[in-house]
Amino acid sequence: MEKSCSLLIHFDKGTPALANEIKESLEGSDVDAKVEAMKKAVMLLLNGETLPQLFITIVRYVLPSEDHTIQKLLLLYLEIIDKTDSKGKVLPEMILICQNLRNNLQHPNEYIRGVTLRFLCRLNETEIIEPLIPSILANLEHRHPFIRRNAILAVMSIYKLPQGEQLLVDAPEMIEKALSSEQDPSAKRNAFLMLFTCAQERAINYLLTRVDSIPEWGELLQMVVLELIRKVCRTNRGEKGKYITIIISLLSAPSNAVMYECAGTLVSLSSAPTAIRAAANTYCQLLQSQSDNNVKLIVLDRLNELKTSHREIMVDMIMDVLRALASPNLDIRRKTIDIALELITPRNIDEVVQALKKEVVKTQSTELEKNGEYRQMLVQAIHSCAIKFPEVASTVVHLLMDFLGDSNVASAIDVVVFVREIIETNPKLRVAIITRLLDTFYQIRAARVCSCALWIIGEYCLSLSEVESGLATIKQCLGDLPFFTVNEEGDGADTSKPSQQVNSITVSSRRPAILADGTYATQSAASETAISPPTLVQGSLASPGNLRSLILTGDFFLGAVVACTLTKLILRLEEVQPSKPEVNKASSQALLVMVSMLQLGQSSFLPHPIDNDSYDRIVLCIRLLCNTRDEIRKIWLQSCRDSFVKMLADKQFCETEEIKAKAQISHAQPDDLIDFYHLKSRKGMSQLELEDEVQDDLKRATGEFTKDGDDANKLNRILQLTGFSDPVYAEAYVTVHHYDIVLDVTVINRTKETLQNLCLELATMGDLKLVERPQNYTLAPESSKQIRANIKVSSTETGVIFGNIVYETSNVMERTVVVLNDIHIDIMDYISPATCADVAFRTMWAEFEWENKVAVNTVIQDEKEFLNHIIKSTNMKCLTAPSALDGDCGFLAANLYAKSVFGEDALVNVSIEKQIDGKLSGYIRIRSKTQGIALSLGDKITLKQKGVAI
Questions:
Q1: Does residue 632 or residue 150 have the better pLDDT?
Q2: Global pTM?
Q3: Residue 62 gets which letter from DSSP?
Q4: Going edge to edge, which strands form the sheet with 768-770?
Q5: Phi and psi dihedrals of 59, rounded to 5?
Q6: 834, 913, 433: which is closest to 658 by C-alpha?
Q7: Do 686 and 244 touch, CB atoms closer than 8 A?
Q8: In this structure, are strands 799-808 and 784-793 parallel, antiparallel, or unpaired?
Q9: Residue-level pLDDT at 336
């Protein structure tokens, strides 16, 4: 059996020392050899060895030693060994130990006295302690503070023993007297802790009679004072008015730890606006003064909790919170922005946006490791601000458009998506945005950004000048046509002009080809890579731009987008341009571009030919320009934008619904008691207490004090561990709270005999760890006992707890074992629904390496019904918009997302199809960064998907 010890020592079990070798070393005169021998003895005892033959040797040869290290190891040895027999009586040889301990308590060396007093704090045998009490009390008045502080702790531990009050009847009076005259901060803290633990009324009286001097006390004592206040107010909330002033005075303490604890205590005791504002100010001060990133993250968590429950007060603190953006740590910045975004109001939106703009400019001027990721974060924050408050869009859109060509593709995508949404929701900014977009289009280097920018150009270039500018910009970025030529003389002809070689490098590729007439020729293509940004020369680009380079790499999806944009611009030009020759000229140029792309896609120059979807799309655009109908024109020029407007409306609806879901729903019973504030007596109450009374009345009236614990849910969490016919019945109530699992096990003795040494033995499988072993109990006939076991969780993986109950009876000497049912810890207790952007979801889906593929096997025959069943069973959130799930086509695809308490991401894709016979088929794919969550979630889905429809 493992034994408790206050020292953790590594011990290699492969080479255990022999007892005889240890005994020889202890009997020698070499001090170093004795130290090593004592260490080996302690390690062997900790690993279950008894070593009874060493006790007399240690008494004879180790007790008299004056070496401090040996004396320390001796106390560890005495702490571990069994000091009682099987019946609980102290062994007679322990009388030898008592004499040595008494000598140590009177030793002239302060260190030996101090460590001996500290050792006595861990003794539970009153027979050993009783003869030592006069020596312990004498050390309370020793001149050295190290001895006094340990003597006080020894008195406290003795007084807390079952017979401690008989051993030390007047201990509280002595400690209170020592506290009044004590000057050492640590000893003073220990004395006050003893009163707080053993004589709470004396501690309260001492505190209330010295209220004015509390700010001058040391940090250690102030922390104990706060702990006392929390305990007193938790048991009697009506007395918290006496202590609020003490907490307010400690908010300005020089110790950061005291300030933090004060703020937390103040929030837990009072909901008055003055108290919450003072606590928030304290947290913001700590946020600025602390350099440790972990401290900043903890303080931000506290501010986030205040934001949830006291948003009106935190709104005024938003600029103080935003100062945390000065930290280079990305997690701190992300958490700060998340808090600030939920505190923006029409009053502070201008200040917040101005601060975010300054941060964006800083990312441009300074070179840091994660500047691109931070810039993306800021762009998303500004995007959110502009959607909530459209009036600020004009102040930020032009600044952000400078980053359309950002090397960080994710940041550039966020910018162009932001521009696309702003140009629809802010019609007044349309002309300015289009003009700026056409001017900066050549800077874009990412294909996805180009695609979105081309869609904006095609949809929102409405006037004649805008349409012509759009066509000219696309033409210049594509360069000269065709994209490649075939030279019958055997030389690859470059379509780029010589003057263009200044700003680009041309790479030519040649290969033989057979012409239609059977003659040989050389087929060549030129791709250009810009080495410096092109410059504007009289309104035109000096060299072919980004579109040509991207298309020559084989990106024909972008080529299809270019074709669609040109088609929209030509159709728009027909409406706004009265001159038919101009329209025909532009149309023929657009057709030439599309035909050249098809020619490039079908050539053998590129390693991969054009895909079928892009080919069909470009051919459709060619046919449309050759034969335009009014119905087709309406689809291309109106329906596309209508779909986009509908998508924005759905997005706004989802965000609104999410905000409503987060809002706390509280209910009050009609017969609840309400205290009327104006009828109360205000005599002797401070302004803070009056505010607190008002807030309490409001909470009581709105039902915020009503506990939301559902008895039915509690009953569902009770697990039966034994059978009804077993002599011992046991059931467990499982509580899962983040990293902790608490098992409250009720054990009932159903026999007519007394059960002795009853022990609940538990073991775990998976990433679970038992914190401490439950102790032995004696259970009377037909009586019950509540046993609590704590288990730590380290990852999101389904774990199993198993064990048995062992006991003895007076009639049967053998130990009886009752095997318990296994307790399976559900993964659903660790994950909660969460949201993330589509871009983030796709990025994680591509990065995560663990995938679990589950085939659909269910009796449910409706696609949406099955999706809702999976969502409910997995405790995840559907990221796919409701509008995308409308209709009845026999197919359904949806993305689900959840986050665990350990910060792990769980991604699920549901793809199902309705067969001819009405059954559903398809797959559910789970991806995660760790194997545990993918496997556990897959097992859960496999178990639940056959369930009845919800």
A1: 150
A2: 0.69
A3: T
A4: 718-720, 728-737, 740-749, 784-793, 768-770
A5: -65, -40
A6: 834
A7: yes
A8: unpaired
A9: 92
